[in-house]
Each structure stands twice: as structure tokens, then as C-alpha cells.
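The instructor's notes for this session suggest beginning with a concrete chain rather than abstract definitions. Hand out the sequence below and ask the class to guess, before any prediction is shown, which regions might be ordered.
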Amino acid sequence: MRHPIMIVCAPDDWLANQLRELVADRRWLLKLIRRPAAMPDLVPCVLLVQIDVHEATPEMLALLASARTANPDAAAIAVIDTKVADEDKAAWTASLFDLGCRLVLFPPLTRPVIEDAVSGLMEAVIQRGMPDKAAT
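After discussion, reveal the predicted structure:
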């Protein structure tokens, strides 16, 4: 079995840095991309997309929808990195679930919260079986 893959789409290294120790301990691969257009051809097991709700671009939201279409078994997590009013959280969560996210994380974001969310989804994806590289 090849190593499980985690792709982080974020404008900076912060989110990837929160996961580096977990990824190394579990022998998973981590790929950081800055823009959705840089999404590699390989199908991720877990995709994390960092979103600023005040500057959310259609490109970032389209990435979540296309990942779901490309591989319905891949797990997508939206990581909201800006403060959101309580009354807006439900609307954002519903919209992101409609786009295929399995989880939506809001601030405050701590390393243990992010690691627990990611490791739980990654383990579930691994249990279902890794996609065959030849099929991607």
C-alpha cells in the first residue's frame, strides 16, 4: 500500500505546519499548494482547504466541489481562518457541506483540534482502502 496523502491548500504554511509532526509520525505524505489551480493530478485521501470567509474566492469553493466529484471517498475539510459571527456559522457550514466537506473547523484553531479532526478522517479513509495509484 502506498502512503496516505494529505493535501493542504492554503495561502501560507501555518496549516501545514500544524500537521507536520502528525504526518511524520503516521508516515503520511503532505503536499502544500498555494492555489487551487496548482492541485496535483493525484487524488488526495484528505484535502484541507483554508478559507477566509471575508475573501472566499469561487476558485477555492470550486476546488472543494471538484474534489468531491473526482473522488467521492476523499475527505475534505474546510478550515476557516477568520472570525465568523455566530449567526453566520450555520450558513457557512451548510454551504461547505453542500460542496462536499466532511468537516468545517472554525476558530479558535489549535493544533490538537486540527490533528484530531485530520487523523480521524484519514484513518476512516485508510480503513475504506487507499485508491490504486494506477487508477488515478
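Then share the key points. The domain at 5-130 is CATH 3.40.50.2300 (Rossmann fold). The first helix runs from residue 14 to 26.
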